[in-house]
Amino acid sequence: MPEDCVSAFKFITGEGEWLDVPDGAPNLMLTHAGVRNFKLNPRQSGAHVYRCQLPEDYQPSGLESLVWKDASVHEIMELPHTQFLSQASTNLELGAKVLQGATRFRLFAPRAQEVHAVFGQAVDGSDAQAVALERVDASTWEAVVEGELDGWLYSYRIAGGNDDGTTHFDANFPILDPYACASLGARGPGIVLADSRMKPVKHQFVPPHWHDLVILEGHVRDLAAHAPITLSPQERHGYAGLRQWLQAEGSYLRDLGVNALELQPVQEFDNELPSDYHWGYMTTNYFSPESSYASDALAASQVEEFRGLVQDCHEAGMAVILDGVYNHVGEPNHLLFIDKYYYFHLDKANDLVNWSGCGNDLRCDTPMMRRLILDSLKHLVRTYDVDGFRFDLAELIGIEVLREIEDELKAIKPGIILIAEPWSFRGHIQDELKDSGFASWNDGFREGIADYVCGKGQQEAIRYFLSGSPGTSRFAAQSINYTESHDDHCWLDRITEREGHDGSNPTVLDRRRTHLMAAILFSSLGVPMLAAGQDFLRSKCGIANTYQRADLNALDYNKRYVYSGTHQYFRDWIRFRRSDEGKALRYDGALGEHYVQCFFQEGSSAVVAVFNADRSVDAPRVVLGINPHLEFADICVPEGMMDGLRQVADAERFDARGLGLADIPQSPGRVSLPPISCGLWVG
Fold first, then answer.
1. At 498, is the pLDDT very low, low, confident or very high (cuts 50, 70, 90)?
2. Which string of b and e fits 519-543 if b means at least 16 CB within 10 Å?
3. CB within 8 A of 36, min separation 6: which ones?
4. Which of 203, 359, 527, 564 is deepest in the core (most CB within 10 A)?
């Protein structure tokens, strides 16, 4: 069919709102940029359409196929059965369940021909027993064995058809149960746990309101590895060490003053050995806390230790947000061996699709993949009292599933913190997220502020970012403002004057620009997020991708003393933002048109920004001045605007009582900002 015969279209409401195309639309058409449209082919007519009417109570098993006879060529043709397969589901409870005097194994495997559970107590499998599971509905398999097997190890074996050579059924491959609540590693086996170890928390922690959040992104091992307290090597590898460091005198996490800790993935991931360093973005089980961080993984101590870490954070006044990866999985790919066609996006050659960059994009729109996502998230909230999630490459999860996540989790914890990384290599869902209850990582802020402090920004850009990025946010706290995360160059290496992006020996100008960044980050409307160590000029020696570099990622806490002024400067800004005097910076709701007013010198991006300019919030007015250039900036402001204000910070100092000496020069209707400087005034 010639390409020019095909048209693309979308529906639009009478109010001018474009409606997104569902993932399951039969005439879905993706552009090279990942934009979704409906496809209209005028050469197709009603003669090309076939419909099958199934009984209303019919439950697809995934084994169905459609067969038709083409009269013109007298051939029997088998049509794809994937539509039936993708609708297969069950409402039965899944996983290993300890009953009274027995243990039940239950697995969703729609196209399996045989399923066995293999279980025992020995790690080497020397005492392993196997039991065949039987179908209990169209797509679910079950076996009940004698004995309460709490603490036993188990896995599954699945046999199925492999006639076309494209499936991955392998009766000899040990499969980690997707619903295992604990695992002995990325390959399994799973660990049977009695309900008594998985009780829901009695008293939920209430996380801060979104507009009050100050988030620190960190990694369990990076935070604990060089903690300046007495710890064993084993403790420095995981939850136990981080818990002790959190509670110790001089704790970095508590002293910094943040009220939310966003942990890089702690769901079971695919490190080969427990000692291997890993960022965690290759998940192999969504229910089990990472076993390599546990003191005794065989005893499933990760359950109690992770629960204890969350509780310790709560007692320190910090919410816990987990970085979750639900767009692809790690190796071994257990879901692939359960059913490739059900769980993964495939191309026309039945090969795995790779919009994640990791080679196996999940079909989040099938009923049981959606349920696996939702059940695991609800498990983490109920069992561990997790306060929120940041979803990696959320565009691949899809806006419909994200909205379902929002509804389900808010029913359990109304104040749940939901954050999306709104892009993938396929596309971007920032516009769709505006109408949801999700906040989004603001990569424009990251790039824009790095340019700005180096004198390359524009007036409208700094106005936009200080105002909460209103073009991409429905309310101010929907923008997660950050200038460094785990990925890519760290902040200092991004902006350093040194060659090769190596900021390990920062210049005076590197440090001053970092202070300007802190002033912008903590005064901009939205939610500020720091990367651990950013406050004491952490460098990764110019290396951008450090996902396996424990030596570069582990925090060197000695730098808090080397760069104590910078560390204290960040702490002071955090304290001010969270204080009553900083309330104007924590704007709640949709932004009023005149809430933030910015004044510029012509031809310069230096700015004086007034927060609460319209007096719409019962809070002191806050004024921020920033000059990223190497020459003075004289900025005209309305006469009387600075009356009654005291300067509490510049680019080196912060004193809530007022600086008193060497204040930034002012005259009626004018503020004179020195080169590479900033100032903060409070009314």
1. very high
2. bbbbbbbbbbbbbbbbbbbbbbbbb
3. 20, 21, 28, 29, 30, 427
4. 527
The reply to whether the predicted model has a pTM over 0.85 is yes
Give CA–CA dist 504/489, Å, rounded.
12
8 A C-beta contact, residue 134 and residue 142? yes
Q: At 303, which helix (H) or strand (E)?
A: helix 301-315
φ and ψ at 419, to 5 degrees? -130, 135
Cα dist. 123→153, 158, 289, 298, 424 in Å?
8, 21, 19, 8, 39
507 vs 33: CA distance, rounded Å: 40
Cα separation, 267 vs 254, whole angstroms: 24
What is residue 40's predicted lDDT score, i.e. its pLDDT? 79
Tokens (6 digits) for 409: 């989790």
Polymer length of the chain: 683
List of domains in the chain: 3-49 (no CATH), 95-197 (2.60.40.10), 210-585 (3.20.20.80), 596-682 (2.60.40.1180)
- Two tokens, residue 580: 């009553």
Q: Which phi-psi region, left, alpha or beta, contains residue 350 (left: φ > 0; alpha: ψ -120 to 50)?
A: left
Among 204, 682, 208, which residue's Cα sits nearest to residue 477?
Answer: 208
- The pLDDT value given to residue 350: 86
DSSP state of 186: T
